[in-house]
Specification:
The complex is a heterodimer. By secondary structure, chain A is mainly beta. In chain A, about 0% of the residues lie in helices and about 55% in strands. The chains are: A mainly beta, B mainly beta.
């Protein structure tokens, strides 16, 4: 199983961040596909997750500007963040969590996102 | 929805054991056994080392062990090795389809 992610790394305030994570190997169903971020000098932050049916869960503190979607035809899932600010500058990771487990076993390589005027 | 509380740093000499705590509340760690631990080295993605409180994924040495008591989970690293240096994060299910991470602990092998 490999997760490969990509997206724009440099944004201006108020723009929209869009990241995509492609899944290679293994089944796409039976898992929650997760986004996590790490701001500079800070810890990991759970953003949200989605299953193959499109049912998504979000961090209550981040919910309003964040949208996770899935494209099962391509075995991909995406993260969209509107109206970004400097506070959204972070390394963003995608990861896989099996149903009925809390462990994120497989991770993408990470995408560094910088928001700067 | 506060982050779980971890000590900012921990250290030990090669061969020694070190335990890292992760304190939550009765709404997260105290209520669920979906507790995971991750090791992170600079510039790399986190690696799962413990899931469901005490289970180790294939390939993770048995020097890593996990436990839970009440609202606190713990990760013990026995027989410390230089490669164990890095950041360690705990995570727990917090109910209502929400997951939370700890603030992280920097482990130094002296």
């Amino acid at each position: 199983v490999q997760l490969q992610q990509w997206g724009a790394g440099l944004l201006k305030p108020s723009e929209t961040l869009a990241l995509t994570c492609a899944v290679y190997g293994g089944s796409f169903s039976g898992y929650y596909w997760t986004w996590i971020r790490q701001s500079p000098g800070k810890g990991l932050e759970w953003i949200g997750e989605i299953n193959h049916s499109g049912s998504a869960n979000y961090s209550p503190s981040l919910k309003s500007r964040f949208t996770i979607s899935v494209d099962t035809s391509k075995n991909q899932f995406s993260l969209r963040v509107t109206s970004v600010s400097a506070a959204d500058s972070a390394m963003y990771y995608c990861a896989r969590r099996p149903f009925g487990s809390g462990g994120l076993m497989y991770w993408g390589q990470g995408t560094l996102v910088t928001v700067s005027p | 929805q506060s982050a779980l509380t971890q000590p900012p740093s921990a250290s030990g000499s090669p061969g020694q054991s070190v335990t890292i705590s992760c304190t939550g509340t009765s709404s997260d760690i105290g209520s669920f056994n979906y507790i995971s631990w991750y090791q992170k080295h600079p510039g790399k993605a986190p690696q799962l080392i413990i899931y469901e409180v005490r289970n180790r994924p294939s390939g993770v040495p048995d020097r890593f062990s996990g436990s839970k008591s009440g609202n606190t989970a713990s990760l013990t690293v026995s027989g410390l090795q230089p490669d164990d240096e890095g950041d360690y994060y705990c995570s727990s299910y917090a109910g209502s389809n929400f997951w939370v991470f700890g603030g992280g602990t920097v482990l130094t092998v002296l």
